[in-house]
Specification:
Layout: H1 3-16, H2 18-40, E1 44-45, H3 55-67, E2 72-80, H4 89-103, E3 112-114, E4 131-139, H5 142-145, H6 149-160, E5 166-171, H7 172-206, H8 209-233, E6 239-240, H9 243-271, H10 276-303, H11 311-342, H12 354-359, H13 366-377, H14 379-394, E7 402-403, H15 415-426, E8 429-440, H16 446-460, E9 470-473, E10 479-487, H17 492-510, E11 517-522, H18 523-557, H19 561-586, H20 591-594, E12 602-603, H21 605-634, H22 639-669, H23 674-706
Parallel strand pairs: 1-6, 7-12
Antiparallel strand pairs: 2-4, 2-5, 3-4, 8-10, 8-11, 9-10
C-alpha cells in the first residue's frame, strides 16, 4: 500500500469514527499531563553537561574521585552602602548581623558563613570600600540547595537590608533559580503574544472563527504530547530545563502550520463537491502526505543536533522533535476526526466579507502572479539583487563571537545579575570564577613539586589572575589541586584567552619532562571546552543535514537540480539570519528600538540550533511550493507558467503560515533572557527572509533561468523511488482550487 492510500484510509477511518478517536486522544492527553506533573519538573537540570570527556570533565572527575570534596554550593551576599564604608563601625555591625543571620539557619541549610570582619581577605572588600561580601556555604548540589534559598534570602535581607544598606544575593544556585523563573515568565509572554497574533492571522486566512481556533487547539495538543514524551525521556537521559521552551515554541509554530494546511485542503475539497468523508480522505492523502514528509524534513534536520555530545543540544533537539511528532500525529489523526465530526460547521462564526471570499473560493493571487512574472522577466537582475542583499547580511557572520551566557546577560532587574555586576566591576578579583589545575602525579616527587612552583610563579605574573593561590593535596598523595582566582571585570574573551594560555603555554612549560598529567578546569575552562566541542562537531552536523536533505529532496522531486538549488537558497537565508544576529545583538544596531539587549557574544548553541530549525522549516515551504510547481509542470504547462501557478496558488496559505511563525518566534524574542531573544529573533527574521526574498525572488528567478533543466535527473538515478509529496488532485476541467495544502 502506498503512503497516499494508507493516509487516505487512515483519515477516512478517523473521520468515520470521530468519537472513538476523540476519546482515545482524551485518554492520551490525560496520561501525558499526568506524566508531566509527576515526572518532568524534578528531572530537568538547569545546567548543561558533556556526554563526552573533554579536559575539564576529566579534571572534575579526578578531583571528585581523589579529593572526595564535600558537596556544597557557595552563595555570595553583597552588602553595599552609598554613604558608609567597610571601615565604619555601623558597616561592620551590619556585616556581622548578616553572618549571624545566615549561620542561624542551621547546619542543614548553611554550613558556614565568612566575611571580612572574620578574616583579613582583601577579595571580600570592594575597591571603593563601599561594598563587602559574605561567603555562605550551603551543603548539597545546585538542585538540592534551591528549595532552601528562600530562607537564606529572607534571613540576610532582614538582617542587613535596613537603613542605608542594600543586600543582594548571587551565586550558582541563585542565578540558576532566577534564570529559570525569568525563563518561565518569558515562556508565558511568548505564548500569549504568539497565540494572540496567530489567532488574528488565522481569522484573516480562513474568514471564520471556528476554523481559526482549531489550529490553536491542535498546537496545544501537540505541546502536551511532546511534554509527556519529554517526561518519559527524562527518566533515562539528562535533559535541560530549556526543553520546555523548545517544546512550546516549536509546538505552537508547527502545530498551527500543519493544521492550516490540512484545514485549507479540506475546505478546497468540499468546494469541489466531494462528500464530507471523501473530502477528509482526499485531504489525508494529499495535505496529510505533505505534512508527513514536511515533518520528516524538520525531524531529519533536528536529528543532526544529536551528534553534538552535549545535553543542551540533545534537550533542544529532542524537545523540538517531540513537538513536531505531536503536531504531525495530531494533524493525521485528531484533525480528520474533528473534520469528520463538524464538517462544514468549521466555517461557523464567519467574518463578513472575509468569510464570503473564502466560501466562493476566490484567492487574491494577482499580486503573486504579477510578482513572479515581473521577476522572471528580468531573472538575472532579480537574482543578483536578492543574492546581494542576503550575501551582504551574511558577511557579518564572520564577526560572530560565540559565548555562554550567565549572570552577565541577565536582565537589569534580576537581583543575582546586579550582584554579579557589582562583584565583576567593584571587587579586585573574581569570587565566582576560578581556574583549577589538577596535577595527576606523585605529589611528593621533587620534580612535580618544582613544576608546581614554576607554574605558580608564572601564574602570579599573569594580569588575568589575581588573588590568593591555594594548593591542596589528595589524601592518597597522587593529586595536587591548584586554584587561581581570575581577575574581576574580564570579558569572556579575555578570560578564555587566559585559560588557553595556561593550557597551551604555561602548563607545558612548567611540566616539561615531568611524569604527571596536568588538566585545567573551572567555569571558564568548561565553557571553552563547550565552544571547542561545538566548533568540532559543526561540520559533521552540516554534512549530515545537507546530505540527507539532498537525497530526500532528490527522491521527492526526481531532480538533482531542485535539491541543490533549495539547499543553496536555505543556506543564504540562514547566513543572513546569522548576520542580522551579529548586527543587532553584538553591534547593537536597532537593539534599543526593538527592546533587545546588546551583548558581546551570541550564545554558542544558537547558530547550530538555528541552522537545524531553519533548514527544516524552510524545507517545509519549499516542499509545499515546489510540489505545486512540479504538479503543474507534469500536466504539460510551461516552466514559466508552472512557476507562476505554484507561487500564486500557495501564496495565501504559505504567507499566512510564515506570518504566524514570525509572530510565535517574535513573541519569544520579546522576553527578558538574551538567549531566547537571540533565538526568537533569529528564527523570526530567517522565516521572514525565506517567505519574502527567497520565495518571491530567488525561486522564480532561478527556475526561469534553469528552465526545463530544473527537473533533470541523470538516467543512472531513475531507479530512485518516486516519493512525490502531492498526488495530482482529480478536478473538473472548469475548476481550479483557490487554496493549497
Amino acid at each position: 500500500m502506498s503512503s497516499q492510500s494508507f493516509l487516505e484510509s487512515l483519515a477516512r477511518r478517523c473521520g468515520s469514527h470521530p468519537w472513538r478517536v476523540l476519546s482515545a486522544w482524551a485518554v492520551a492527553l490525560v496520561v501525558c499531563a499526568t506524566l508531566v506533573v509527576l515526572l518532568l519538573g524534578g528531572n530537568l537540570s538547569g545546567d548543561g553537561s558533556f556526554t563526552n570527556e573533554p579536559e575539564s570533565v576529566r579534571a572534575d572527575n579526578l578531583i571528585s574521585e581523589r579529593l572526595n570534596p564535600t558537596e556544597q554550593v557557595t552563595e555570595l551576599v553583597v552588602v553595599s552602602s552609598d554613604t558608609l564604608t567597610v571601615d565604619d563601625a555601623a558597616f561592620r555591625a551590619k556585616v556581622d548581623a548578616v553572618i549571624a543571620a545566615a549561620g542561624g539557619l542551621g547546619t542543614d541549610v548553611v554550613s558556614g558563613a565568612v566575611g571580612y570582619t572574620m578574616v583579613p581577605d582583601p577579595s571580600l572588600v570592594s575597591i571603593d570600600r563601599h561594598s563587602a561580601v559574605v561567603s555562605v556555604s550551603m551543603p548539597g548540589t545546585l538542585d538540592t540547595v534551591t528549595p532552601r534559598l528562600e530562607a537564606l534570602h529572607a534571613a540576610v535581607k532582614s538582617a542587613g537590608g535596613e537603613g542605608d544598606f542594600e543586600v543582594l544575593v548571587t551565586g550558582g544556585a541563585s542565578i540558576q533559580q532566577e534564570f529559570n523563573e525569568i525563563g518561565e515568565s518569558d515562556l508565558r509572554t511568548g505564548e500569549t503574544f504568539g497565540i494572540g497574533v496567530a489567532l488574528i492571522i488565522l481569522v484573516l486566512v480562513f474568514g471564520a472563527v471556528v476554523a481559526a481556533g482549531i489550529p490553536l487547539a491542535l498546537a496545544l495538543v501537540s505541546i502536551t504530547v511532546a511534554l509527556g514524551m519529554a517526561a518519559v525521556t527524562s527518566q533515562v537521559l539528562e535533559l535541560s530545563s530549556f526543553i520546555t521552551n523548545m517544546v512550546t515554541m516549536i509546538g505552537l509554530a508547527m502545530g498551527i502550520d500543519y493544521s492550516l494546511f490540512i484545514i485549507s485542503r479540506f475546505r478546497e475539497e468540499r468546494r469541489l463537491g466531494r462528500s464530507k468523508l471523501d473530502a477528509v480522505a482526499r485531504t489525508g492523502g494529499t495535505a496529510g502526505r505533505s505534512v508527513l514528509f514536511s515533518g520528516g524534513c524538520v525531524v531529519l534536520a533536528l536529528a543532526g543536533l544529536l551528534l553534538v555530545p552535549s545535553s543542551i543540544f540533545h534537550s533542544m533537539a529532542l524537545g523540538a522533535m517531540f513537538a513536531v511528532f505531536g503536531a504531525v500525529l495530531a494533524a493525521l489523526t485528531l484533525l480528520p476526526a474533528i473534520l469528520g465530526l463538524i464538517g462544514d460547521r468549521i466555517d461557523s462564526l464567519r467574518v463578513p466579507f472575509l468569510g464570503r471570499a473564502q466560501r466562493e473560493g476566490r484567492a487574491d493571487r494577482g499580486f503573486w502572479h504579477w510578482a513572479s512574472h515581473a521577476v522572471m522577466r528580468r531573472p538575472v537582475l532579480s537574482l543578483m539583487v536578492a543574492c546581494g542583499l542576503l550575501l551582504g547580511a551574511s558577511s557579518f557572520y564572520f564577526q560572530l563571537e560565540k559565548g555562554a551566557g550567565g549572570a552577565d546577560t541577565m536582565p537589569p532587574a534580576a537581583e543575582s545579575g546586579r550582584a554579579y555586576q557589582i562583584l565583576a566591576y567593584d571587587f579586585p578579583s573574581s569570587l565566582l570564577t576560578s581556574v583549577y589545575v589538577a596535577v595527576d602525579g606523585d605529589a611528593a616527587d621533587p620534580s612535580v613539586i618544582a613544576a608546581v612552583e614554576r607554574l605558580t610563579i608564572s601564574i602570579q605574573e599573569e594580569p588575568a589572575f589575581e588573588g590568593a593561590i591555594t594548593t591542596q593535596v589528595a589524601p592518597s598523595g597522587d593529586l595536587t589541586l591548584l586554584q587561581f582566582p581570575q581577575t574581576a571585570n574580564l570579558t569572556f574573551e579575555q578570560a578564555r584567552a587566559a585559560v588557553d594560555q595556561l593550557r597551551g603555554t604555561s602548563v607545558p612549560a612548567a611540566f616539561s619532562g615531568v611524569d604527571a598529567e596536568v588538566l585545567v578546569t573551572g567555569q571558564t575552562a568548561s565553557i571553552a571546552d563547550y565552544l571547542t566541542t561545538i566548533d568540532a562537531y559543526t561540520p559533521w552536523v552540516f554534512a549530515f543535514v545537507l546530505s540527507l536533505s539532498f537525497v530526500f529532496l532528490m527522491a521527492v522531486f526526481r531532480s538533482i537540480v531542485v535539491p541543490l538549488k533549495a539547499i543553496l537558497m536555505n543556506l543564504l537565508s540562514v547566513g543572513a539570519a546569522y548576520g542580522l544576529l551579529v548586527m543587532v545583538f553584538q553591534k547593537g544596531w536597532g537593539a534599543e528600538f526593538l527592546g533587545l539587549q546588546q551583548v558581546e557574544y551570541i550564545e554558542a548553541w544558537i547558530p547550530l540550533f538555528l541552522f537545524a530549525i531553519l533548514f527544516g522549516t524552510s524545507m517545509d515551504y519549499h516542499v509545499f511550493l515546489l510540489s505545486r510547481i512540479r504538479e503543474h509542470f507534469d500536466e504539460g504547462h510551461s516552466n514559466t507558467d508552472s512557476v507562476a501557478f505554484g507561487l500564486g496558488s500557495t501564496a495565501r496559505i504559505i504567507t499566512g503560515a510564515a506570518v504566524i511563525m514570525v509572530a510565535v518566534f517574535g513573541g519569544f524574542a520579546a522576553g527578558s533572557l538574551v538567549m531566547f531573544q537571540q533565538l526568537g529573533f533569529g528564527l523570526a527574521v530567517a522565516v521572514f527572509l525565506d517567505a519574502t526574498i527567497v520565495r518571491t525572488v530567488l525561486v522564480p528567478a532561478a527556475m526561469k533561468l534553469l528552465g526545463n533543466a530544473n527537473w533533470w535527473l541523470p538516467r543512472g538515478l531513475h531507479w530512485l523511488p518516486d516519493l512525490r509529496v502531492e498526488a495530482r488532485p482529480v478536478r473538473k476541467l472548469s475548476e481550479e482550487p483557490a487554496t493549497c495544502d
